[in-house]
Write a structure and sequence with these properties.
Blueprint: E1 6-11, E2 17-21, E3 24-29, H1 32-41, E4 57-59
Parallel strand pairs: 1-4
Antiparallel strand pairs: 1-2, 2-3
């Protein structure tokens, strides 16, 4: 399990990436706007600054900001 508070999991075969915040599944993001909304709902209203900070976000199984097909 990751020590990073936010994990953006590998892209799914149909597109999108599962997002977990502190181990809680927030949903399937298809773009950065979806990801930011999940983080806002998790109590992180200024999340844009966190997306490229490896202390906060772990991008697993793919490049950051890429969400697969769709």
């Amino acid at each position: 399990m990751s020590d990073t508070p936010i994990v953006v999991h590998r892209p799914s075969g149909t597109g999108g990436r599962r997002v977990t915040v502190r181990g809680r599944i927030m949903g399937l993001a298809h773009n950065d706007d979806h990801l930011i909304e999940f983080l806002r709902l998790a109590g992180l209203p200024d999340a844009w600054e966190l997306l490229d900070d490896p202390a906060w976000v772990e991008w697993q199984g793919g490049l950051p900001h890429e969400y697969g097909s769709g």
